[in-house]
Amino acid sequence: MTRLLRRVLAPPRLNADPRTHVLLLDVDGVLVTPPEWFGVRLRRESPTLTRQFFETAFHSASTGQSDLKEHLPDFIAALGRDQTPDEFLHEWLDSENHPNRALLTAVRELRAQGWHSYLATNQEAHRTKHLLEVVGLGDVVDGHFASCMVGHRKPSPEYYAEVTRRMGDDAAHLVFWDDNRDNVQAAREAGWQAFRYTSVRHFRRVMAVG
Question: Transmembrane ranges (predicted)?
Fold first, then answer.
């Protein structure tokens, strides 16, 4: 009875062909899972300043309208920190350098089966480069659709429309994983096959890995 119940409750396996479908992966909370986000640390230091920073300066940088480093001197000074922009950014990026190695292994197995994979993430340019070159995500993807390059952030419909346009493919051929419910729902509304990431085990089950 228990075994039967497990089969009934198990998520269905994806019916997709790596020759025609493409894997799109969120980063934060999916491919990267640090014990604490740098933004959370900053909010403990200064809740109001941090909220304003992420709603204005960071939003601008993460949609490609500005360079994050242009905004850092004023923000660092307002926080009362004695750091250069490079030192502050290094602390930020280094603190979040925690790749989800078990998931990366699963992605590598999919790529060995013929899958092409891309990052689909809200990021500014400096962290995007760090994720690809230092964290090592560049080793498991063919490219990226960071919001700073797309010009829009998830879950705006414009983000998904632009990524679909750039892929030049049927939206239904885009297989997307994100831990954010709103992002997943927006992707589904755009015609993507979207799944909410909860665990490596669930990912492997749906993607038929192993």
Answer: none
